[in-house]
Amino acid sequence: MIFAEQSVERAKRPVCTYHTSRERPASDRAMWPIATSARVSLLTGGGDRPYALGLANALVGQGIAIDFIASDELDAPGLHRTPLVTFFNLRGDQNADASLHRKVVRILAYYARLLKYVIWAESPIFHILWNNKFELIDRTLLMLYYKSMGKRVLLTAHNVNTRKRDARDSFLNRLSLRIQYRLSDHIFVHNRRTKSELVSDFGVTEDKVSVIPFGINNTVPNTKLSIADARLQLGINRHEKTLLFFGNVAPYKGLEHLTTAFTKVLKEDRSYRLIIAGRVKGCESYWRTIEQSIVSGCISDRVIRRIEYVPDEESELYFKAADILVLPYTRVSQSGVLFLGYAFGLPAIATDVGGLRDDIIEGETGFLCRAGDPDDLADTIQAYFGSDLYANLETRRKQIQHFANERNSWVKVADILGAVYRKMLLAK
Predict the structure, then answer these.
(1) Same domain, residue pair 78 and 174
(2) Residue 24 — very low, low, confident or very high, per pLDDT cuts 50/70/90?
């Protein structure tokens, strides 16, 4: 959908594709008034397709030339149609089912290719979207290597301290984070609370941090599948009040609080349905406990479970079948799932953690509740289904989509990034 079919918001130009020449069209130079040899290397980490492709598309829309350091997962037809992008598939296959030996070989090969790339890369700016597999190396030795080669290193900190969020923090983890943040020339975060956390916990100066919107997810296909057909495919009656939990299952996401709240609302009204769609990542015992609670609570018949990876092309089925997205997180900085829901015009009930308060307009795009409090979550669920937002959901979906497209436009993201890139280039 993105690159191949979607138009660039700012200028009518081709979107991201492959090239071998370093020369850029004259029409693009006017939009990027720096030397034509200036480029930006996007180090994607090989994953998060919606974010990486959305950002690349936006930068190309500004006439910014990029080296796109990626993987098989991030390859897309549109990445091969404009002279503004060179696609470097340094990661290759990232199949999670590969043998341990294969995984070791391919990650070592990736680091070898990356080190070689840095030597001859013309890009003066390296923008890290995600670290790689060996975070301690990426945060320290790899950062020092980039700096020794004269690169300006910019970092997007989607979460300031993921291990703290996951209750697995350590001195070594904090030390390596502090080193990476110290070595970064500039850091991008997605909300004011995350910026405050960087400043207070890691001593980063405020002028070194820029807040950028979390770009709206526009890579997941949105076809002509109707809400009625989506419900029919999942066996959901059109009168059933349907909640959706979507994405990886992990302890910090508070799914146990949602199932407890769901059990409570079912005692008063059996017309509720809950969809749980996503894979379990490294917390199988946690998921087994939740499954047991679903069975013991006698709610199995009201819960649709798809506990596996959901491909992009199948995601719309769940977002169109649902009446509300529920994000019962206990700890988080921001949520990409929220903006995926917004892309389909789906409102959300979310806990008041991280920057979620900044991303939800009460009564307009969703509701907030207290974290770790199933009773408050149950009350909020009932309040939503008694609200005007739910009563007029069919028309409100378009308003939510418009809100998200305006507030979380990739053009706004690219505007901020472009300004920082220029500052970095002029400072060299």
Answers:
(1) yes
(2) very low
Residues 290-318 have a mean pLDDT of 89
Give ∠ CA 137-209-174 in degrees, rounded to 5: 35
Is residue 277 within a helix (H) or strand (E), and if so which, with residue range? strand 272-277
Name, in order, each residue with C-beta under 8 angstroms of 170's C-beta and a sequence gap of 6 or more: 163
Strand partners, 243: 274, 324
Q: Which amino acid is at 121?
A: A
With contact defined as beta carbons under 8 Å apart, do 6 and 15 qualify?
yes
Using a 10 angstrom Cβ sphere, with 0-12 exposed, 13-18 middle and 19 or more buried, the burial of residue 148 is exposed
pTM: 0.77
d(CA 74, CA 91): 10
Handedness of CA 101, 106, 107, 109 (dihedral sign): positive
Pair (279, 233) in one structural domain: yes
Environment class of residue 48 by beta-carbon count within 10 Å: exposed (0-12), middle (13-18) or buried (19+)?
middle
Check if the beta carbon of residue 16 is closer than 8 Å to that of residue 90. no
* Number of domains composing the chain: 2
Going by C-alpha positions, the residue among 250, 241, 109, 55 that lies closest to residue 168 is 250
Segment 350-408, tens digit of pLDDT: 998 887 888 898 989 999 999 999 999 999 999 999 999 999 998 899 999 888 888 88
Residues 170-203 pLDDT 10s: 999 999 999 999 999 999 998 888 898 999 999 9
Q: Cα(first)–Cα(last) distance of the chain, in Å?
A: 37
Parallel, antiparallel, or unpaired for β 241-246 and 209-211? unpaired
Residues 418 and 377 in one domain: no
Residues 399 and 415 in one domain: no
Question: Which CATH number is 128's domain given?
Answer: 3.40.50.2000
Number of H helices, E strands in the chain: 18, 13
d(Cα 354, Cα 334) in Å, to the nearest integer? 6
- Residues of the domain holding 209: 26-215+409-427
Higher pLDDT, 46 or 155: 155
| Strand bridging mode 324-327 / 241-246 | parallel
